[in-house]
Amino acid sequence: MAKWMNAGYNTVYHHTISHHIQRKIQPANTHNRNPEEKKMTFENKVYAITGLAGIGLAVAKHLYARGARLSLADISASALQNAVSILTTESPDPNDNNDRILTTELDITNRAAVDAWITRTTIHFGRLDGAANMAGAIGRKHGVGALLDQDDDEWDMLLRVNMSGTMYCLRAEVRAILATAGTGSIVNAASIQGVRGFALHAAYSATKHGVVGLTRSVAKEVGPAIRVNAVAPGSIQTPLLDKAVEIQGGKLNAMPTVFPRLGTAEEVAESVGFLLSDASSYTTGQVLSVDGGWDP
Ligand SMILES: NC(=O)c1ccc[n+]([C@@H]2O[C@H](COP(=O)([O-])OP(=O)(O)OC[C@H]3O[C@@H](n4cnc5c(N)ncnc54)[C@H](O)[C@@H]3O)[C@@H](O)[C@H]2O)c1
């Protein structure tokens, strides 16, 4: 196992956190850049990212290439391994021996494990500046199951992952940012289905509407110190979309978009990067659609 991998980490170090944090807080070093560059750089800043298969991986690539230190978490060990391999291959950093990446195998529905992950992140890096909460799930009948056939276990699973899991992450991240960097920015993954209704998607759509409500409300509690926004992707080419296509018999439901194509994870990552950066310093509580102009 690579030295930065630590699968199954679940120990809480509450008694040592403040000591380590006080010792390790360092200001981000951006003084040599011009003002425009400064807004978009993430140099020396620390970001927590969940969900590393599709959009989360693209966000990690975006931030890593711009100098960020990353704490990556996913329920899938192979998604984490793949992410580390891609990041270090695409943006090799001769100076840091890969110590800009920390990985944790994590189920975001486990509150204690989420808290332990964020604690581990601040102990390891000394600070937290922001987060991209991209982990999410679809059900077995995504786009083909009516409410009247809704399976209760599936409904509970979607609420646990997409809503409770996102809330656990957001809560732990807000605490850690306030205790370390003091200010920051967090982006949650909503969906086109969090801002519109879609037949045969009630459960997933309800959870994504929940993410929108969580984002808008928490932004008002924790601002201006911490900005909280969401992205609402349309149909984006990722493993999740492949799964949806398979469930829907090999073809996607029609997309009434301006662009007659799927979006890419990188296109969503550009918007997440904007919301995490100082370029969006006056924007909070917003849901940014990245959907190709759905239903214009
Ligand atoms: N791809 C799209 O078309 C699309 C559209 C709208 C919204 N979204 C949302 O964007 C986010 C990212 O989507 P994606 O397409 O990259 O998905 P993906 O399935 O490609 O990647 C999601 C990642 O989350 C991880 N994950 C799932 N459950 C988890 C859990 N309980 N704990 C920790 N990790 C978990 C998976 O292992 C996977 O690596 C999701 O929240 C999704 O709902 C995606």
Automatic annotation (TrEMBL):
Top-level division of the source organism's lineage: Eukaryota
Q: Which SUPFAM superfamilies match?
A: NAD(P)-binding Rossmann-fold domains
List the keywords (alphabetical): NADP, Oxidoreductase
Q: Which CDD domains match?
A: SDR_c
**Alphabetized GO MF terms:** oxidoreductase activity
Q: Pfam families from the entry?
A: adh_short_C2
Can the keyword Oxidoreductase be found in this entry's annotation?
Answer: yes
Q: What InterPro entries does its record include?
A: NAD(P)-bd_dom_sf, Sc_DH/Rdtase_CS, SDR_fam
Entry-linked PANTHER family: DEHYDROGENASES, SHORT CHAIN, ESTRADIOL 17-BETA-DEHYDROGENASE 8-RELATED
Q: What family, per the record?
A: Belongs to the short-chain dehydrogenases/reductases (SDR) family.
UniProt protein name = Short chain dehydrogenase/ reductase
What organism does this protein naturally occur in? Aspergillus homomorphus (strain CBS 101889)
